Amino acid sequence: PMASRLPIGRSSWRAAAKTTYVVWSADTLSPPKWERMLEYSNPEPEAVVATVKDPNPVTGEGRYYRVTYVP
After folding, report:
1. What is the 3-class SS of the chain, one letter each residue?
2. What is the pLDDT of residues 39-50, one digit of tens each?
3. pTM confidence score
4. pLDDT-derived band of residue 9, with 50, 70 and 90 as boundaries?
5. Non-local CB neighbours of 38 within 8 Å, separated by 6+ positions
6. Most CB within 10 Å of its CB: which of 7, 9, 60, 68?
7. Are 25 and 10 in contact (CB under 8 A)?
8. Which of 71, 68, 70 minimizes the C-alpha distance to 23?
9. Can you say whether the dihedral through the CA atoms of 56, 26, 7, 10 is positive or negative?
């Protein structure tokens, strides 16, 4: 998984066809304390660009996000 720090509380990635992902968030990477934020499913038969919004965005420096695939 890749982590990125975003100040706007939104993350996008290319979601493969008929897959499910978990989006995690952390306020720091030193050390990281990942918390499960939400689950995203792409039921479509083709890949799509998925965009999710943090339901509890932070102000200031932002928050780190990572997306993991659920087999």
Report:
1. CCEEEECCCEEEEEECCCEEEEEEEECCECCECCEEEEEEEECCCCCEEEEEECCCCCCCCCEEEEEEEEC
2. 999 999 999 999
3. 0.80
4. confident
5. 22, 23, 52, 55
6. 9
7. no
8. 68
9. negative
CA distance 26 to 70: 19
Instruction: State how far the Cα of 9 lies from the Cα of 42, in Å rounded to an integer.
Output: 20
- Residue 5 tokens read as 């720090």
In contact, 5 and 64? CB cutoff 8 Å:
yes
Are 67 and 16 in contact, with CB atoms under 8 Å apart? Answer: no
* Distances from the Cα of 13 to the Cα of 2, 9, 18, 43, angstroms: 11, 14, 15, 15
